Amino acid sequence: MNHFALSAALLLTVAAAHATPPVGQDALAGAQIKVDVGGRKLNMYCTGKGSPTVLFEADSGRAGWDWSAVLPEVAKRTRACVYDRAGIGASDPIMRASTVANASKDLNFLIKNAHLDAPFVVVGAGYGAMVAQHYALRSRGAVTGLVLVDAMHEDALPADRATNLEAALACLNAAEQGKTGAGCAYPATTINGEIGPRLAAAQAAQSARPTYWRARASELDSLETSASQMRAARKPFGDMPVSEVAHGEPATITAAIMEVLDKQK
What we know:
Blueprint: H1 3-17, E1 33-36, E2 41-47, E3 53-57, H2 71-75, E4 80-83, H3 100-113, E5 120-125, H4 127-138, E6 143-149, H5 161-176, H6 197-206, H7 210-221, H8 223-233, E7 242-245, H9 250-262
Parallel strand pairs: 3-4, 3-5, 5-6, 6-7
Antiparallel strand pairs: 1-2, 2-4
Helix pairs in contact: 1-6, 3-4, 5-7
């Protein structure tokens, strides 16, 4: 058994020992709807019915499956959609720098080409909170609420970003050689619930792909550019409901989303 297969088997064993994963999590472990955003496709999954639609933006280098514990709770009330940014999850590889502005443009094309109807409440974690805000500021009123979880701010970028970039590049090098580098597993998050076998396998496969590490490294390498883009776009949100969540626990995030939904006109 090679190193990758052994790592995947260990992840599956650990996952099996955990409690039952959130309902519907398996749907997030693979490709669902592939939406063209201009010569490449992004993976998207929607569930539930109602308006406004709640859109989820994952943190830097992370896939839409991170929201598997929150998504079904929100879908009990309204339509809820997750997607994977370029190079991450089941989306096509990156073709340009992974900046906030480019991610925001991709989200705009995704919404248009998937025929999703406004209004939207956008939920973003970490780096994804910057993407969510950039899109909201450029969406001409399509976004009517924001939930920002452990939000990254353009004037307070992570102090360890250079170290994280170096680590991502090392993992990229290992993946290109068909190896699994030390510290190159898909990291856990408090946003997600228990990890079932299918998602554990998908995360293990993700961490073995050079395309994933290329996208993750590009987001890190482009942080200064992304910060400049946010500063240029930044303006008051006016009377739009904005909820900031300091700790990414599923119940806390879900409660914040429900509060913002309650404020929709």
